[in-house]
Amino acid sequence: MSNDMTTNVRTVCDPNCHANPKCGIAASVHNGRIIAVAPADYPVPGYENRICMMGRARLEYQYHAERLRKPLKRIGARGAGQWQEISWQEAIALFVEKQKEITEKYGSRAVLFHQISGAYGLLTRGSPLRYAALTGASAVRASGIDYGIARGLQYAFGVDAATFFKSGGHSLNDAVNSELTIIWGGNPAVTRSVDHVALKKARKAGTHLVCIDPVKSETAGISDEWISIRPGSDGALALAMANQIIEQKLYDESFLLEYSNMPFLVNVETGRLLKEPASELAFCGPYQLQDGSQARVTTVFNLVADMVSEFDASSAEKITGVDAATLVTLARRYAHASPAAIRIGYGVDRWYNADLTARSISMLACLCGHIGIPGGGVSLVSGGRRVPVKGARFYAPERKSPNFLSMMEADQAVTEGTPHTIKMECISLGNPYNQVKPNRNKVLTDYIQKLEFIAVIDHFMTDTAKWADIVLPAASIFERTDIIVDEFIQLQQPVVDPEGEAKSDFEIFRALAEAFGIGDYFHKSAEEYIDDMLDTDSPVLEAVNMARLKVEKVIYPWPAQAPYVGFEDKVFPTDSGRIEIYKEDLIELDRELPFYREPIEASPLNPLFKQFPLVLLSSHSRYRIHSTFANLDLVKTREPEPVVRVHPADAHEREIEEGQLVEVFNARGRVKIRCCVDGSMRKGCVLIREGHWIDQFIEGDPYGLTHDQYSPTTENYAHYDVLVEMKGTAENT
Ligand code: SF4
User: Fold this and answer.
1) Nearest residue CA, atom 8 of ligand 1?
2) How far is the CA of 246 from the centre of ligand 1 (A)?
3) H helices of 337-443, where?
4) Ligand 1 geometric centre to CA of 424 (Å)
5) Distance 58 CA to ligand 1 centre (A)
6) Within 13 Å, how many C-alpha atoms sit on residue 222's CB side?
7) Is the minimum distance from the CB of 54 to ligand 1 under 6 angstroms?
8) Which of 184, 231, 510, 525: CA 20 to 30 A from 207?
9) Could you give the CA distance from residue 625 to residue 117 in angstroms, rounded to a whole number?
10) Ligand 1 binding pocket includes 17 (Cβ within 6 Å)
11) Mean pLDDT of the chain
């Protein structure tokens, strides 16, 4: 692509930043090279100047000297950093040879395709799934990290955890309709920088903003109230609020009777639901069963009232660290507000019991009837309507699926060979050997060693790519054709030729399919597959196709613009069609109600607490999306080195000073890092923001500090549920 004129070409930035919609980028191109990036236009108002610092850093990313430009084959020991450039032909042939060899030896499921969250184009994400489905291989389904809260919301509301992010929540521009908004364990002022302005606007318009967070975050700074909570005790706070609401009869009885399973009868002996509601919430007593026998029954509501009665304000204060008066005021304010919203962040997600926390919080909203109305709801910070394209037309060819595994099942398959073995892994769109997989030292000494072949598709030699046998250079957002679908449909189109020999994920998997002998099933062009996905019966997409998208670049297909309200129709896709507070199928796991359970590790009740008394938090940075962008100079100048933040009292107890080098450690790992004494921290916890690459730490890394325990009711690793200790070192450079 060569042109003496400067032209502007619209494409889309699409990392896992939860921007809703993803930001359009106008790239200025001169002589075949991008010389500037700027916010692109949208066809409807409200999305002006939409680009964050990372979007602007895309220019440095594009032409970075360390961008991978040719396929590489390992020639030294794994991880030794010795590589040989090879042709695409050799790379594809080697990949397919290994896949066939492993398939013959162990079966087709022994080959795993693991695509993470580095990009959201439907072709880019769907290509490994299509290829895995066609070759009978395994693939990792949405799981592993950030699915604890979504799974809890799924238990309550019935919407699949993988899609709750959008359809279950309210869009952030609905915040203006809330009298009260509780931001629970999230920091959208930093992590949703292009969207959080909606919260500021809402506050200006009169919404009372409460931020619940152990740390006085940037969002706490723009809130009316900051409630500092002991990390991991959020479920207890929710139950204590529910106790106040029930005790003071502040609940919405008619909502509970009509839309929840609170009035359903439960057999006291067996715990089984009787599948029929009582006409009053507080019913209990003998009841004639269908077989004519008598049973003692009570309602779910009574069981809930009994459960939360243990969480009176002063008991809850001891558990959560939130003082009793604050808790009581918050409960009353939430119940009285008309309406009130709760927006949950990932700060309450990466815990062993995150699903229980989400269910407790959902129960609060249900008790007060704050569901399905503008200004209400329980959202994963934000939700939104999604254009109903048919992605499955591409990623599930002829309705075939890969052998889907959760990340945990896949980890077990690799390390223990159950339920079947996995011997080859192809990773795209992610850097799981950096921080996504917990207990990094175990990953290096066990997981990686058991794999016979590792292929990585990426833009850079990441901490995952370093351990690969072959590394394939991927095309960037400026070099590929794709669509990004949320409330809009946006075209991601080639702006310039690929750097070096980089290829789009779509082209890579199409070449693999050809070499594997299944090219007939991967023969269409990117544009043709996109057209297939847009060809649906939905009236929303009636006039939308690839030809129109190529002209308009971005389409808002809805008849009118309005904030999105989850469950506005009060249809809940649960078995009962109601919000389910009681889950009969979880009785055996002792989780039929959203009980409060202490964190699995980060609890003062854990004997380990004496040895490792600090909770390690690893929240997101303003300057990275997980590990993406961490290697850019633009980012490094703003956050030059990783630091551990610690409360002044914790630093003082350990005779540690501001700027000193310290060691943060537990029995699993250690990291040497500079200390930042920070009054916004809560005493008893330390914070190392996630996403730095391993070589950015002086010694060790914090990703070896996490553990791989996970709850039987989620598919979520507990990255925050971690204890550590910290000590000063003699060095101070
Ligand atoms: S990284 Fe920034 S520019 Fe890119 S989509 Fe997300 S918010 Fe927008």
Assistant:
1) 23
2) 42
3) 354-367, 392-395, 407-416, 440-442
4) 33
5) 10
6) 19
7) yes
8) 231
9) 10
10) yes
11) 95
Q: E strands of 474-595, at which residues?
A: 482-485, 489-492, 554-555
Q: How far is the CA of 165 from the centre of ligand 1 (A)?
A: 17
151 within 8 A of 534, measured Cβ to Cβ: no
Q: In the predicted model, is pLDDT for residue 259 greater than 90?
A: yes
C-alpha 23 to ligand 1 mean position (Å): 5
Atom 3 of ligand 1, nearest CA residue: 55
Q: Does 194 sit in the ligand 1 pocket, CB within 6 Å?
A: yes
pLDDT of residue 165 exceeding 90, the answer is no
Task: Measure CA of the first residue to CA of the last residue in the chain; give whole Å.
Answer: 48
Enter the pTM of the model: 0.96
**Does the beta carbon of 51 lie inside 6 Å of ligand 1?**
yes
**Is-contact 74 468, C-beta < 8 A?**
yes
Q: Is 321 in the pocket of ligand 1 (CB under 6 A)?
A: no
Report how far ligand 1's centroid is from the alpha carbon of 391 (Å): 23
What tokens were used for 271? 């715990």
pLDDT classification of 168: cutoffs 50, 70, 90: confident
pLDDT-derived band at 408, boundaries 50, 70, 90: very high
Please name the residue whose Cα sits nearest to atom 2 of ligand 1: 52
Q: Burial letters for 720-729: b for 16+ Cβ neighbours within 10 Å, e otherwise?
A: bbbbbbbebe
pLDDT tens-digit profile of 323-345?
999 999 999 999 999 899 999 99
Do 231 and 598 contact (CB within 8 A), yes or no? no
Is residue 22 lining ligand 1, measured as CB closer than 6 Å?
yes
Q: What H or E segment, with its residue span, contains residue 221?
A: helix 218-221
How far, in Å, from the CA of 630 to the mean position of ligand 1? 15
Q: Which atom of ligand 1 is nearest to the CA of 56?
A: 3
Distance CA 309, CA 517 (A): 64
- At 399, the pLDDT band (50, 70, 90 cuts) reads confident
85-135 residue pLDDT tens: 999 999 999 999 999 999 999 999 999 999 999 999 999 999 999 999 999
pLDDT digits (tens, 9 = 90+) for 242-252: 999 999 999 99
Q: Which domains does the chain have, with CATH numbers?
A: 72-143+392-475+500-541 (3.40.50.740), 148-259+322-385+569-582 (3.40.228.10), 607-728 (2.40.40.20)
612 vs 383, more confident: 612
